[in-house]
Design brief:
Belongs to the class I-like SAM-binding methyltransferase superfamily. RNA methyltransferase RlmE family. This protein has helices at residues 2-17, 29-40, 42-49, 57-67, 85-94, 133-142, 163-184, 201-211; strands at 75-79, 107-111, 122-125, 148-153, 185-196, 212-218, 229-237. It is built from eight helices and seven strands, in the order ααααβαββαβαβαββ. Helix 5 (85-94) links the parallel strand 1 and strand 2 (107-111). The structure holds S-adenosylmethionine.
């Protein structure tokens, strides 16, 4: 998955500078097939036209259009933010760069193991591991009031290719984020996370249902049909531990 993402983003970058569609000699047939499909992908083309860093922007845009999770003035924690497409969407939707002077100004904090190139209106903590307590401490320091109104996670571990193992590792990443929600997420807040469907999906959904008033699964059109990728959206966070500072 991570390899795919890197290829997607590398390809987007390549398209910005080259017009040739030919593939390099070192490419395997599978890679060539993947790139051919990728270059015909309407979301890749749209990402290029709309200057998004990655096609994944359209997943968040669709979830947001359907469920209105982002609005001006909100504080967003974007986990697994590299290369920054979700943060681009979030910055625009919460008015984090102050582009609309008549609307409240929000805040976007992106965290990733990988370096993220600067983006106007966003604050990036990278390289940083969201499963590391020191990162969460820093996140709390950086978020205005110490909390986010929305936690986004498009995190994906390095795929091993062993479906059940990759599934377990992604569920574990989502769970670790849910573990820190009492310290980071504002009451009434929203949690959106990427999962790969599998044996532990129900367990994670149950945990979300215990802590949020509403939970649902979402499969945006930009998420490839053949992928087991599905997003869990939970709204109206109820569980609070420790003082809420704002
Ligand atoms: C699918 S990409 C995210 C794409 C991003 N939403 C965008 O639109 O640009 C997944 C990211 O999760 C990050 N990631 C995986 N495990 C992580 C962890 N423990 N802490 C922080 N980031 C992590 C990876 O480095 C990778 O950049």
């Amino acid at each position: 998955m991570l390899l795919s993402l890197k290829l997607v983003c590398a390809s987007l970058r390549r398209q910005r500078f080259h017009t040739s569609g030919s593939h390099s000699k070192g490419q395997t047939a599978a890679e060539h097939l993947w790139l051919t499909r990728h270059l015909r992908d309407p979301f890749v083309k749209a990402a290029k036209v709309e200057s998004y860093r990655c096609r994944s922007a359209f997943k968040l845009l669709e979830v947001n259009d359907r469920h209105q999770i982002l609005r001006p003035g909100l504080r967003v924690l974007d986990c697994g933010a590299a290369p920054g497409a979700w943060s681009q969407v979030a910055v625009r939707r919460v008015n984090a760069a102050g582009a609309d002077p008549s609307a409240p100004v929000g805040f976007v904090l992106g965290v990733d193991l990988l370096h993220i190139f600067p983006l106007e209106g966003a604050t990036f903590l990278s390289p940083a591991d969201v499963t590391d307590p020191r990162t969460i401490q820093r996140v709390r320091e950086l978020l205005p009031g110490g909390r986010a109104d929305v936690i986004l996670s498009d995190m994906a571990p390095n795929a091993t290719g062993i479906r059940s193992l990759d599934h377990d590792r992604l569920i574990s990443l989502c769970s670790s984020l849910l573990d820190v929600a009492p310290d980071v997420l504002h009451p009434g807040g929203t949690f959106l996370c990427k999962t790969w469907a599998g044996s532990q999906s129900l367990g994670l959904q149950k945990r979300l249902a215990e802590q949020f008033q509403n939970t649902r699964t979402v499969k945006p059109r930009a998420s490839r049909k053949e992928s087991s990728e599905v997003y869990l959206l939970a709204t109206q966070y109820q569980r609070v531990k420790g003082p809420v500072e704002d």
